[in-house]
């Protein structure tokens, strides 16, 4: 009986994680979660939202959203430097684009990811990648979005990630106007 209850509890919890909101607000931006990405309860109170992109062989990428308010969060370059500092042995790149009223800084890194909290112990994760976006907003504060995971998963999810970011910036602060990232 206990085994059956455990199985049911696990099945229900998996459904709850997957359901989550289709649209969600972080700072001045409304994001649309791609259909096959799961909504995850944020692992930290610093995270405003957290998603999971599926891969193959049970691999997955983690997408985290941060917003600290106006003038908070360390600024664009400090975050880019910190993100790049979490990777060793691979290439990094940065590009800036403007979408509507928003400047977006896209960053990519790959190699060995030093997983862990800043200043704490780290776990090296080989063949990992990062795709990040910083959406600037002087009024309510920048939003920092970071996807990390096995390189193949990040690569396969990069199109949906970029579409989600671009559409959010283009329809800034207007819930209901953001089409899902996979349309």
The proportion of residues in beta strands is 35-45%
Largest sheet: 8 strands, antiparallel
Q: Superfamily at the CATH H level?
A: Mog1/PsbP, alpha/beta/alpha sandwich
How far apart the termini lie comes to 44 Å
Structurally, how many domains make up the residues?
Answer: 1
Q: From the alpha carbons, calculate the radius of gyration and give it in angstroms.
A: 17 Å
Mean pLDDT: 85
- CATH architecture grouping: 3-Layer(aba) Sandwich
Identify low-pLDDT runs.
3-17
The CATH class, by name, is Alpha Beta
Question: Which structural class best describes the helix and strand composition?
Answer: alpha+beta
**CATH third-tier fold name:** Protein Transport Mog1p, Chain A
Q: Give the fraction of residues assigned to helices.
A: 25-40%
Count of DSSP helices? 3
Q: What is the overall silhouette?
A: globular
Order of helices and strands: HEEEEEHEEEEEH
Number of strands: 10
Structural account:
By secondary structure, the protein is α+β, with helices and mostly antiparallel strands. It has a single domain, classed as Protein Transport Mog1p, Chain A, CATH 3.40.1000.10. The chain has 3 helices and 10 strands, in the order H-E-E-E-E-E-H-E-E-E-E-E-H. Strands 3, 4, 5, 6, 7, 8, 9 and 10 form an 8-stranded antiparallel sheet that branches. The protein has a two-stranded antiparallel sheet with strand order 1-2. A hairpin with a 2-residue loop joins strand 1 and strand 2. The termini are far apart. The N terminus is likely disordered.
